[in-house]
Structures are given as C-alpha cells and as structure tokens.
Write a structure and sequence with these properties.
Layout: E1 4-8, H1 19-25, E2 31-34, H2 39-51, H3 60-75, E3 78-81, H4 88-101, E4 109-114, H5 122-127, E5 148-153, H6 158-165, E6 170-173, H7 180-190, H8 197-210, E7 238-241, E8 247-250, H9 261-268, E9 278-279, E10 284-286, E11 291-296, E12 299-303, E13 306-308, E14 313-333, H10 337-354, E15 361-367, E16 386-395, H11 398-408, H12 411-414, E17 419-421, E18 430-441, E19 448-453
Parallel strand pairs: 1-2, 2-3, 3-6, 4-6
Antiparallel strand pairs: 1-7, 4-19, 5-14, 7-8, 8-12, 9-10, 10-13, 11-12, 14-16, 14-17, 14-18, 15-16
Helix pairs in contact: 1-3, 3-4, 6-7, 7-8
C-alpha cells in the first residue's frame, strides 16, 4: 500500500499558531494531528467548564480551524486533535459553527471521542472496589476524594480509528494518549489488527517522536544547536508511514530546522520510563528495538520496532487541590549582588519566623548564581552583575501565604541595597493543583464515538 503522511502541528496548548497553517499549505500531508493536553491542562479546563458549561476545551483550536479548514476540505486533509479537553462536545459544536460560517455546511463530518471524563462516576467506581490508588504512593483516592478537580481516562487509538471509519474529517477527543493521535490514522488506513503488536508499537513510537512538534526537528535540541538553520521558520514534523510498520520522519522542503538521528534520539528519550516497556492502552512498545538511519538530508528512517500485548488497565489522570502557593522575586545589582540576595533571603526568613508563620515548604533560588544546578555549581567565582532572588512558599493555610506576599516587597526599602525590580509587583496567591496518577480496569469504562455533519 502507498504510504500516508501524518504531520503534527502542536506539542502543547500554547505552541505556535502558525505551525498548523504551515503544514497544510507548504506541502502534501494526509493527516494533521494537534496535541494540546497535559495533566495540568485538564484541571484548568475543568475550572473553565465549571464557570461556563460552554467552555472546557482548547479555544485556540477554533481559531486554527477557521484558518485551515477550507484548505483541509480542498486537499482532503483529516485533522485529529485532543483539543476537546473536558468538553469535546462543545468543542465539536464550535468547529461546526466555524464550518458553517466558512460556507462549508454539509461538507465536513466531525467525530467526537468522549467517555474519558469519569469525574461524575468516582464515587460509583470507589463503591465497586476500584480504589484508584496513587501509582506513586499506593494511597486510595478516597483519602483526597473531596479535593478532586478532574478525572480523565487515557483512551488510545482505537476510538480515533473508529471515527475515521465513519468518515469523520475532523476528530476531536478528550483525554487520549499523545501517541494515539498518530497511531489511530495508521490503524484505519492499513487495517492493522488489534493484536498486531509490532505494527502497533511502531505506530506508537512514530506518535511519540512527533508528539512534541518541532522538538524533533531541531527545536530544543542540544546536539550542535548553534548550526541548526533558520529556527525562526522551523518546520514541524511529518511521519511517512508504511503498512509494514516502518516509517520515516521528515519536514516540508524549504522550512528551517533539521531532522537527524541525533535529534530523533533526544526526542525518543523524552518522558520514557522503562525503555523496553513503554505502556499505552494500545500495546507495550519496546524502545530498545528501534533502528534509526539517516536516509537523506532531513529524513530519518525508523525500522525494527517490536511490541507486546496491551495491559488490562487504563491510566487515569486525576487532579486535586493541594493547598496554596505564592512565588515572588527581587533583583539585586552589582556590586556584591549575590551576597545581597542571600542576605535578603535570610532577612525574609527571620521575619516570617518572628511572625510565627509556618509553611509546608519554603524554597529560595538565586537566578544567575547557580539556580539551575544548585550546589553542583558551587559559589560564583566572580562578582556577578545581577542576581534574581526568587522565593516560593506553599501551605494549606491561605492566610500564611497571604502574609508572605506582604512581607516580600518591603525588602525593597528595608533590606539590602540596589534592588532594581520587584518582578511584577506583589506575588499572587495561587491554588496548587496536584497530580494523582492511577489505574482502572478497561472493563469499567468505554469510549463513546459520535460522528455528525456540520
């Protein structure tokens, strides 16, 4: 069978708004994937939906679709995005409205993948004996049940493939795996079986390579980064996939950046636990079997991938309220900038102690004097021109955080000299949203696929 070209134009909610446009306009592709979700994003979206039931999805996606949908219809490019967040139905309705405004009514089928949001089912599941234990601590979810803000199952590629089978051109999911966005089109196009573990693993690794957008085409790349050409116009990645599970990674001709074996290796290491057991809902991929070859300039061929059977569990991403925090900063200038910043930190801590304030944690960083590497960097060897003191506190007690906020700014006048800035003024008190990873049996939840014409 002929290969298919799957591009990814978003690595997170906040990535380049121009990348999806570039991908659909500057060369041939069959699929455009857009990855918007991270663990913290789900809780943000849940808060948005709680304030207004029309929201709870990546609203940037609607503006992107307004720009690219006519071209996608003209070129028959299918779009697969997890922009639905905690409200994929509302996101789908917004895209349908865009289609109608563009004069494309009746010409675009939209697929919705839902069912991942189990927030309303938590008590039912716990009563059934599904404890949703924290994968790191082993504690049951019941211990923080009253503080949970969002709970979403990671679905895989199968419901995406099902929506494509029903002729959807734009597919919007809630929480699904990043890799599933790429694997779904491969399953649909090539008819891979649900137990063809090697091919499913290949599609999974293809998705992993491109899930972070330009991070695999020269962006955020450590190897020889100064020589990477035209980063201002960096090309986003494209997988050219074949039925046998082999594929190549490339980008549109004439775009900046670079696709190399070294760059692909860096991306393969991203968020990887046990390399021989990269677990997804679709399969278990073995990263130790990956073979990379520089087939041509800006073309890396990938082959040899092996995989094993999927587990009987879905991963669940749960967020919960874990107290409050505030982070503030002061900038000290030469001479003796580092000494002044250290002295200011000591003064602040003494004042907080004198007020009887207790925090779960207080942390100070000296930006410019080893903040990234801490003690490994050692003491600065020169009289630095400037140092930024950044102090953060967290506590279950909001009042303690609010008082910290009011004690930081006075250091500008009653502390060491040469304060040159107070950051953005008094720091804000913010709610801490913590992450609770868990597992649940696949039998307890099912994806819901709906396809309709805009």
């Amino acid at each position: 069978m002929k290969p298919i070209r799957i591009a990814n134009g978003q690595g997170f909610w906040g990535d380049s708004l121009e990348a999806p446009v570039q991908l659909v306009e500057r060369g041939p592709i069959d699929y455009l994937t857009l990855d918007y979700l991270a663990e913290i994003t789900m809780s943000i979206m849940q808060k948005q939906r709680a304030r207004d039931p029309r929201f709870g999805y990546a609203h940037d996606f609607i503006g992107v679709m307004a720009r690219i949908l006519p071209t996608c219809v003209e070129k028959n490019i299918k779009v697969v995005a997890n922009a639905g967040g905690v409200n994929p139905q509302a996101c789908g309705a917004a895209v349908a409205e865009v289609a109608r405004k563009l004069g494309l009514a009746g010409k675009v089928k939209i697929g919705i993948v839902a069912g991942d949001d189990i927030m309303a089912r938590l008590d039912e599941l716990i009563a059934q004996g599904i404890a949703l234990e924290n994968m790191d601590t082993g504690n049951p979810l019941a211990s923080i049940r009253d503080r949970v803000q969002s709970a979403n199952v990671y679905f895989g590629a199968a419901p995406i493939a099902e929506a494509l089978k029903q002729d959807a051109q734009v597919i919007i999911t809630g929480r699904c795996t990043d890799t599933g966005l790429t694997l779904g089109p491969m399953i649909h196009e090539f008819g891979w079986a649900g137990d063809d573990w090697n091919r499913l693993a290949a599609g999974t690794i293809a998705g992993h390579i491109i899930e972070c957008g330009a991070q695999c085409t020269g962006g955020n790349c450590q190897v020889d980064w100064k020589s990477i050409p035209e980063l201002w116009d960096i090309g986003y990645p494209i997988v050219e996939a074949f039925d046998d599970g082999t594929f190549s990674v490339n980008k549109h001709a004439g775009t900046g950046g670079r696709v190399t074996v070294a760059g692909i290796k860096e991306q393969l290491m991203y968020e990887m636990g046990e390399p021989e057991r990269y677990i997804t809902p679709d399969c278990v991929a073995d990263f130790t079997t990956v073979r990379l070859e520089q087939a041509a300039p800006d073309v890396v061929r990938v082959s040899g991938i092996e995989g094993g059977p999927a587990t009987d569990f879905y991963k669940v991403s749960i967020s919960y309220s874990a107290g409050y925090k505030a982070v503030g900063s002061l900038i000290y200038s030469w001479p003796e900038a580092y000494d002044k910043a250290k002295a200011a930190d000591g003064i602040l801590r003494r004042r907080l102690d004198a007020l009887g304030l207790k925090f779960d944690e207080i942390r100070s960083e000296f930006v410019g004097a080893g903040a990234l590497h801490g003690e490994l960097a050692g003491a600065p060897s020169a009289d630095l021109p400037e140092v930024l003191l950044r102090v953060g506190v967290r506590s279950e007690n909001r009042a303690a955080i609010e008082r910290f906020v009011k004690e930081l700014a006075p250091l500008g006048l009653n502390g060491p000299p040469t304060v040159c800035g107070l950051g953005s003024g008094r720091p804000k008190v913010e709610e801490i949203v913590a992450y609770w990873p868990a597992l649940m049996p696949k039998r307890a939840v099912s994806p819901q696929v709906e396809v309709f014409t805009a």
